[in-house]
Amino acid sequence: MMAGLKMEPAMSVAHTIEEQLRSRKKPEVTALALKKMLIQEVEKNFGPEMAERLRGQTQAFEDIVVREGYRRRPFSKGVLVRSLEDAGFSMREAQTIARSLENRLRRSGVRSIDADELERRIAAEIEELFGPAARNRYAGRQALAGEIFVEEGEGEPRVPFSKGVLAQSVMAVGLSPDAAYRLARDVERRLRDSGSTVVKRDYLRKAVSEELMEEAGEEVARRYHLLRSIRRAVKPVHLLIGGVAGVGKSVLASALAYRLGITRMISTDAVREILRATIPKDLLPTLHTSSFESWRVLATPQKAEPSAALVMQGFRDQVSRVAVGLRAIQERSAREKTSLVVEGVHVVPGYMTHQYQHEVIQIPIMLVLEDEALHRDRFALRERETGGSRTSGAYAQYFSEIRLIQQHLIELARGAGVPLIPAENLDRAIDKGLEVIVDRLQEAYFDVVQG
User: What range(s) does the ATP-cone domain occupy (predicted)?
Assistant: First the structure.
């Protein structure tokens, strides 16, 4: 309907697409494929002009990503509504603003937006709908609310209570962003009802635990207590996320880093770029190619169609070179006692050990995408999201090599006992990743306690 269709023809298109989806053998469809089906159906029935208008918009089934530093989170109309209610708007007013803003963003084709720019657009939307006074009320919402401080003990430094920090903390135990923010707001209301502007850390933890118990059950509350204890008493975490191109490693890494409060994150491709900038191509040629075509520059006779052994030889050669830089980064983080997330195709079992490994909790996981068709679609989606800076052509040309490397990584992971996480649904991958992390941290915590 955002493209200009009336309700009845829009419902007709939706019904036709639903029938097409039901006739498919696969139960899932990617956002990219669904949008393609929608555009084709609209073009067939309503012409190219309407289809082109639709193509330039962000549909309701496509996420709008909010960028905040290195963090990425999906835009949530529900979270915005609650934020507006906190600023003094009625539920009806908050819903009107949130709905109007989302429609405006989607009509403009916005797929990602900086948090600061989103704030400016929210303020502008409020002013357009309710006037300058309402905008000022929203801008001054934190001052109007009054600040609550949290202290560890009597006389110790106090820190401001933050709903955002608390929401991030409880997301680490598996709550969705929407549920986490709702819980954080309920906790804030509870703190304000206590009548004090300063609360003890123990009181805050108790309040969070009780809200978690009610919201998600005893197991989630227990997991929250465990994670809080671990963060304060155990070694830093080194989370290592492996997987081939196109499976969603960077998305998973950003989501898990945000939920765990880890601020240091690095891609192995970035390490490779640094190495290739300092080491000449004629000295280490495999550093200067993609991992799936490193076989081309090996000192061996070239073939139009490489054998599996040759592809793997080139891949392992590049991994061994990048591992030198990764080892230095891991060792420095271990010495500095800082947590770290490393993601990339060069995170390979057998290459990530270092001399200070006993000083950290190392958690390796391998992200895999079994569905070949979905894997191809991911490359096309990434090309579009990056404005063509990462074209899908090379990935399509070497797709069989990429799949071959994935199979090799799967075998290595199984042999080393590294958890395999399916990447078909990234939300479920995040949940599974959190589950693996909590289990490993629990083991480490009990090892420390027993020690």
Answer: 62-146, 148-235
